């Protein structure tokens, strides 16, 4: 008789333990989402000829502070890699570390050029950051006859409830 009672009691205890574990996973997921950040990146490439329309692309990535977001853009003669790592500061602002790498070839001689930049930028949530991986603004580029790359980065807190 005792053996018949032990099996159902063990099954009931196991079911309670599994349910408690589910609650811990849900709480852990909610804690991660409470700290999550949305990184919105808009890329524009302005051609050397001012009359041509710029090429644009947008991307939104979800991350947590200290974890990098990588964006890769490829065109016919250009490759752009951007690595952004946001860190939340004690005062509530964000310190954004950004590394840009650009490879491009110039049409007549197909000579490859490489540029690399690294910046540490203090920002507030929702503030727009204009980042120039080639290190030049649009006016500098038009005067010299080069194309230009402009990245707009916005970091906002991610808000989403975990389904119960």
Query: From N to C, what is the helix and strand string?
Result: HEEEEEEEHE
Residue runs with pLDDT of under 50 for 5 or more positions: none
Structural class of the secondary elements? alpha+beta
Shape: elongated
Average per-residue pLDDT, rounded, comes to 77
Number of helices: 2
Biggest β-sheet: strands ordered side by side in the sheet:
2-1-8-7
Percentage beta strand: over 45%
Rg: 25 Å
* Straight-line N-to-C gap: 39 Å
Key attributes of the depicted protein:
about 160 residues, alpha+beta, 4-stranded antiparallel sheet, 2 helices, elongated
List the topology elements.
Blueprint: H1 2-35, E1 37-46, E2 55-63, E3 69-74, E4 78-88, E5 94-106, E6 111-123, E7 128-131, H2 138-144, E8 148-157
Antiparallel strand pairs: 1-2, 1-8, 3-4, 4-5, 5-6, 7-8
Can I get a quick summary?
With 164 residues, the chain is α+β, with helices and mostly antiparallel strands.
Describe the protein.
The protein is α+β, with helices and mostly antiparallel strands and 164 residues long. The protein folds into 2 domains: 1-35; 37-157, no CATH class. The protein is built from 2 helices and 8 strands; from the N terminus they run H-E-E-E-E-E-E-E-H-E. The chain has a 4-stranded antiparallel beta sheet with strand order 2-1-8-7. Strands 3-4-5-6 form a 4-stranded antiparallel beta sheet, with no helix packed on it. The two termini are 39 Å apart. The model has no long low-confidence stretch (mean pLDDT 77).
